[in-house]
Amino acid sequence: MTARIKTVGKQTRYNSIWDAIEDTPTQAENMKLRSSLMLALKNHIAKEGLTQSKAAKLFGVTQPRISDLMRGRIDLFAIDTLVNMLTAAGLRVELHIAKAA
C-alpha cells in the first residue's frame, strides 16, 4: 500500500482522482501537474474573456488546440507545451516540491 491510498474499513480512499485511476504514482503525479496547468490556462481564458481564436493567437497555437484544452483533452498536452502556452499568455509558472507522505 502506498501513501496515496488509504483503506478505511472495506473502502479504499485516494488522495486524488489521479491516484485512483492511474497505474503508478509517477503517472498520477504527471497527470496532477498537467491538469493544474490546463486549469490555469482555462481560468485565464475565462478571466480575460478571450475567444478561442484570440487565445490561440496569444498562446501561439491553433484554435483547435484551444478547443482541446477547453474540452479537457489532457491526453493531448505535454507539460512543456502547457508551460509554453502559459508563458505566452504572460503567466509565470511556479513549482513547489515536497517530500512524498
Task: Describe, in short, the structure shown.
With 101 residues, the chain is mainly α. It has 5 helices and 2 strands.
Describe the protein.
With about 100 residues, this protein is mainly α. The protein contains 5 helices and 2 strands, in the order ββααααα. It has helices at about 15-20, 25-50, 50-60, 65-70, 80-90, and strands at about 5-10, 10-15. The longest helix has 24 residues, at about 25-50.
Q: Any descriptors?
A:
single chain; mainly alpha; two-stranded antiparallel ribbon; 101 residues; 54% helix
Major beta sheet summary: 2 strands, antiparallel
Low-pLDDT stretches are: none
Approximate shape:
elongated
Q: How much beta, percentage-wise?
A: 5-15%
**SS field, number of helical segments:** 5
Element order: H for helix, E for strand? EEHHHHH
Tell me the Rg in angstroms: 16 Å
Structural class comes to mainly alpha
Helix percentage = 40-55%
